[in-house]
Design brief:
alpha+beta; 3-stranded antiparallel β-sheet
């Protein structure tokens, strides 16, 4: 999730991620995965803060250097 530097620190990316995770859970998914570039340090920090953990590569995206996964809580 990329946000403009003008809105960073305002919780925009966290709210986007929360919404996406809720939609994934409603659709019946148990986990979500994402990849990101090595230069996006702020994104790595955000994903870890939101409960993601680094996993092995699951695709061959030439621009990805880190892959993350999060288990979704189903109620």
């Amino acid at each position: 999730v990329w946000t403009s530097p003008a809105v960073r620190g305002m919780g925009v990316a966290s709210r986007i991620m929360d919404r996406l995770e809720a939609q994934a859970a409603q659709a019946g998914f148990d986990t979500v995965c994402l990849d990101t570039n090595k230069t996006l340090i702020e994104a790595h920090t955000l994903y870890r803060k939101l409960g993601y953990h680094e996993i092995a590569a699951y695709n061959d995206n030439p621009y990805a250097h880190h892959w993350f996964e999060k288990a979704l809580r189903t109620v």
